[in-house]
Protein 1
Amino acid sequence: GENVEQHPSTLSVQEGDSAVIKCTYSDSASNYFPWYKQELGKRPQLIIDIRSNVGEKKDQRIAVTLNKTAKHFSLHITETQPEDSAVYFCAATPEYGNKLVFGAGTILRVKS
Amino acid sequence: ETGVTQTPRHLVMGMTNKKSLKCEQHLGHNAMYWYKQSAKKPLELMFVYNFKEQTENNSVPSRFSPECPNSSHLFLHLHTLQPEDSALYLCASSQGVKPRELFFGEGSRLTVL
């Protein structure tokens, strides 16, 4: 089955700096890769996703890149703000199912 | 109420108790999920229901028993749990059987004494 590894487990950045979180996956059949943000005490919420037919997707300060050959994908947050502080989860699943497999999460702290 | 609601939000139970977690979605979705969230671990998929039918049981111990009476409601029946089952149990829903955005509930924080 699919296995998703996520790094780093914690990340501290200064406000205004960029943050990058990386994930690798094992199942070459996976082709849907979402990212979820979970603020303290709240539910995880989707912030961006990418499918394998594209290599990059952007939404304002957030971008995701995908390298299918290397089986890794990354989340990039530019101009970080204190409200970006949260736990971020990557996930992967094949197109033919809805069994999302999540990474262990990255605690992002943005220091002001 | 909108979105996905879970009750109770907090539950403390002994190892011999029987309790149930409830999830209700008001989004018109046809897939519902139970995930377990433990500290410093990935979100673990437990069960998936599509159109009320269970399509995934991720090797979950039988002391966890799911029930999906209709596409809007999902239960997780708990009995003879172990302390290591203490965790946040998250319910989610999505539209369709292909990968889509998951809408999570706030979770039920379970403590097993």
Protein 2
Amino acid sequence: EVQLVQSGAVVKKPGESLKISCDTSGYTFTNHWVGWVRQMPGKGLEWIGFIYPYDSDTKYSPSFQGQVTISADKFISMAYLQWNSLKASDTAIYYCVRRASPGYCSGGNCNVFDHWGQGTLVTVSS
Amino acid sequence: SSVLTQPPSVSVAPGKTARITCAGNNIGSTTVHWYQQKPGQAPVLVIYYDTDRPSGIPERLSGSNSGNVATLTISRVEAGDEADYYCQVWDSSTEQVVFGGGTKLTVL
């Protein structure tokens, strides 16, 4: 059974750094892109980016490029989302997701997310 | 780049049919996926490749995509269908995942 289990809720102050994690199991981690999706309070879903753990190739939404870093450790099947300096506007639930199609594949058919983590609530407040 | 427009809310009586639209310029030329998010839960994929259902998703949920509108249809609506629904595409011109704004389905 494919599972994505995320780290727990966290409260941080503006300017602090943070790294949240996504522990995957039930499939070959290096075969599938793993991504992150943000959901601000009461709002919709926003794609942040994803990483291909096989070679660490990474794609970001322009809205998040430079604001966060996505990484993966293929030896322990974990993906991460990291901030160097949090802002109050980073307060949101963050979901990790698995892209259904393995490997390099382009087009709409490839970019669908078949498994989601339970979400990590990040609260940034002074 | 793709902009996907969904109605903020749709209301339907139990047993009736709900249709949730996702409008985008020539959306019929790409592939649309749909997610269901119940309160306090993570989203779940309910329709992929315009019309396909993952295992465990009831046949009451179906999808279509043509022209400038994709539609998620829920037949014989039940109270348990009450949720937010999001459409999603891949914008090949910008290489980005794009989500619609979401539609809150209320079962009266």
Protein 3
Amino acid sequence: SQQGEEDPQALSIQEGENATMNCSYKTSINNLQWYRQNSGRGLVHLILIRSNEREKHSGRLRVTLDTSKKSSSLLITASRAADTASYFCATAGGAQKLVFGQGTRLTINP
Amino acid sequence: KAGVTQTPRYLIKTRGQQVTLSCSPISGHRSVSWYQQTPGQGLQFLFEYFSETQRNKGNFPGRFSGRQFSNSRSEMNVSTLELGDSALYLCASNPRSEKETQYFGPGTRLLVL
């Protein structure tokens, strides 16, 4: 079973708008990571946030982590057509493996 | 540095056959992990190798196996293929750990007929 659950499963917005995706998980973690996957291709690492961090930025990306609620959010500002992809959160905890959620499919409309 | 490479990129096999997939990690990366991605089950961890030793294993049957060579290149093998093995198989590498940032290859798409 998946550790992370992304919400929403699919999101469609207009170019230039902000996109927010959420991830909830069940057990304690060491870090939480976000990845992007363009249709049927390999995953690209976007950002890693550790359990003792609350917020992290990378370019147009902003990630927050609330360990008390066991949730994280990924915000993409000023979206572009090239941001169209699936986004996955992955958690690393006590289990010796990275566990991925089911992903959010983001579509940016021109 | 060159990225993670996987060969072949596409493969068609029939039920009962076996298949071997190959992965070359980023130079200097000693941890290599394999994942299976399907529309129904999503991304699932298969196993991780570090310095030629299997360090972690996911919940897959024994038909799925792997190995790692001294140059960190890794192969995974699936024997007695089933229709449900059709998937995108992804390889990822990291200098030390499968729990830190993973650098993924483009994947091998396997279709079992």
Protein 4
Amino acid sequence: NAGVTQTPKFQVLKTGQSMTLQCAQDMNHNSMYWYRQDPGMGLRLIYYSASEGTTDKGEVPNGYNVSRLNKREFSLRLESAAPSQTSVYFCASSEEYRNTEAFFGQGTRLTVV
Amino acid sequence: ILNVEQSPQSLHVQEGDSTNFTCSFPSSNFYALHWYRWETAKSPEALFVMTLNGDEKKKGRISATLNTKEGYSYLYIKGSQPEDSATYLCAVNDYKLSFGAGTTVTVRA
């Protein structure tokens, strides 16, 4: 019973490098989300996908791109990493985009040096 | 982006005491109010999802109420225990799920 799986768990990047954070859910959920967590700021929404085939910007989308590869997978790409993107990233999914609880992955701790 | 505010930012409570804290949100375009419990080094886990004005939900010693007309929800912890120490997040649905910054609860034994 995996739920939401994120990879990698930890990553160190140099400024300017690119990388993709992977997220997959096995609950047949329609909606998926990417958040970043910074001290004192709770969870801020980067991008979300209300249903397969759609993606939309959240609160802090600059510097990121996403792909909803299929119903299971929602990836987050940093094209040119910056130190300001040092954060803990959480992927989440929910059955629908409203009224249903979200399930979270274990998080990816990313450091950009 | 929905402006979801939680207060206080943190609180300390003695074991056995009860406590409560607030989530406020814009009352327009409201679909649902979520509460999550987030323990250190873990991922957030859902406590409640509430949709109707006047909703009240309970799970063990934790309960929540919802007032959609005035745009607030309360979370209550009765008889706090050390294992209740966590950050409690509220979130509001419109087409996405927007979180507040959380209330961090520390229960002192």
